[in-house]
Amino acid sequence: MDETPWRKKAKEQYLDKVRGGLFGGAVGDALGYPVEFLSEKEIRARYGAAGIQEYERDPRTGLALISDDTQMSLFTANGILYGDTRRNMQGITASPSACVPLAYKDWYFTQAGTVGRPGDDRVSWLLDIPELYHRRAPGNTCMMALASGRTGSVRMPINQSKGCGGIMRVAPLALHYQLRSREWLDMEGAEVAAITHGHPLGYMPAAVLTHIVNIGVYGGCEKGSSLKDAVEEGMETVSRLFCEDRYLPQLQELMEKAVSFADNDRSDSENIRRLGEGWTGEETLAIAVYCCLRYPEDFTAGVIAAVNHSGDSDSTGAVAGNILGAWLGYEKIEEKWKENLELKDVILEMADDLCYGCLISEHSSYKDPDWEQKYIRCQAKR
Predict the structure, then answer these.
(1) In contact, 175 and 22? CB cutoff 8 Å
(2) DSSP of 168-237, one letter per residue?
(3) Which of 82, 106, 275, 330 could crosslink 124 through cysteines, CB 3.0-4.6 Å?
(4) Strand partners, 163
(5) Residue 273 belongs to some domain of the structure
(6) 219-249, pLDDT tens digit by residue?
(7) Domain-located, residue 382
(8) What string of DSSP letters covers 149-166?
(9) Mean pLDDT in the chain?
(10) What are 21-73's pLDDT values in tens digits?
């Protein structure tokens, strides 16, 4: 008897939090995207003293638009699942950081604006989603790195960029893998960021985020059960992995501030100004962690705080949404955020795929035509 359906059943307990982590990131991204390049003063002049509190919807579609942050997160997920399927069906084993660049090549193609990709080298069914061909302020570092045709790594950096374009897209890695030891996963988070961002402060924060989000979904924090415990454990693990890195103390100092600020009586605006603007990886992580620790049980308050500042509002909102969504779950995200979000069905479909993973294999009689269509033929479901 094929046991695959039983393995799928066992993973259902994690579905709500996997959905929460991916969808929550898209919510924070869409909320922050309209104010990404506005100062705090301009945000409050446009939306009122409390800043932006609701989606700003596109007048043509009536939807809240996602940015490159969610686009690249979806392609990260596609690359991971493509790699898993190759392993199950062909015995070809490769790390996520080896497969994800193939999907990023596909994402880069979408930025040219022509639907469909000729040739046999596509790996992403997402290429069949027309809405993903819109350019939503893609990061210069990502575009230049991918245009070069080279793939960066921690050992062989492609540049010295510490922009937040690495951390804002790695959450799918944390949402997918349930492992006993997180050091490998944390390092993979760094490696996925380092594909395009070669500065240690561009990829080390991605490793910390991977740790925090993974605990939110699967538990297992040795320090305790709180979000703060997970943040501290994530920093300890990354400090071991990168113990000789000269930029590690800078990340440690900023994260200590983020944790301590969450308990003070200053306003969110003042605290976030002291942490930075989020244009770099370490600042995005610090701002997002601060907002999540400040509002650990309130998804809405956390993402609103994360976007109402002078800086990279969509990225800080996305990362805060990843964390809070993974810790609280999809069901605890208010309904207003689930309505009128661009590509919400695609986001949820990808979240479900991340949760269950590839359940077919060359040695199993279990069939999943939709999975084969998406991750073997690399085409969207018909």
Answers:
(1) yes
(2) GG-HHHHHH---S--HHHHHHHHHHHHTT--SHHHHHHHHHHHHHHHHHHH---SS-SSHHHHHHHHHHH
(3) 106
(4) 280
(5) yes
(6) 999 999 999 999 999 999 999 999 999 999 9
(7) no
(8) T----SSS-S----BTTT
(9) 95
(10) 999 999 999 999 999 999 999 999 999 999 999 999 999 999 999 999 999 99
Nearest one of 241, 290, 281 to 262, comparing CA atoms: 290
pLDDT single digits (tens) 311-345: 999 999 999 999 999 999 999 999 999 999 999 99
Query: Which CATH number fits the domain that encloses residue 250?
Result: 1.10.4080.10
Q: Residue 299 class from Cβ within 10 Å (0-12 exposed, 13-18 middle, 19+ buried)?
A: buried
Give the CA distances from residue 284 to residues 146, 167, 290, 328, in Å, rounded to whole numbers and listed in that order.
22, 8, 10, 20
Task: Give Cα separations from 87 to 52, 148, 178, 197 (angstroms).
Answer: 45, 28, 17, 27
The number of distinct structural domains making up the chain is: 1
For residue 64, give the 3-state DSSP assignment.
strand
What the block records as the tokens of 283 is 């600042």
313 Cβ neighbours under 8 A, 6+ residues apart: 32, 33, 35, 36, 38, 278, 306, 307
Nearest-angstrom CA–CA distance, 85 and 80:
9
- Residues 337 and 302: their CA atoms lie apart, in Å, by 13
Residue type, 38: L
Burial bucket for residue 173 (CB in 10 Å: 0-12, 13-18, 19+): buried
Residue 236 in domain: yes
- Residue 240 counted as domain residue: yes
CB-based contact 79:124 (threshold 8 Å): yes
Closest CA to 318 of 165, 140, 178, 211: 165
Q: Coil, strand or helix: which one is 57?
A: strand
Q: How far apart are CA 60 and CA 55, in angstroms?
A: 14
pLDDT tens-digit series, residues 4-30? 778 889 999 999 999 999 999 999 999
Cα 329 to chain center, whole Å?
15
Distance CA 375, CA 371 (A): 6
Range(s) of the domain holding residue 205: 4-375
Inter-residue long-range contacts of 88-91, CB under 8 Å, 24+ positions, other chains counted? 88/358, 88/360, 88/361, 88/362, 89/358, 89/360, 89/361, 89/362, 89/376, 90/362, 91/362
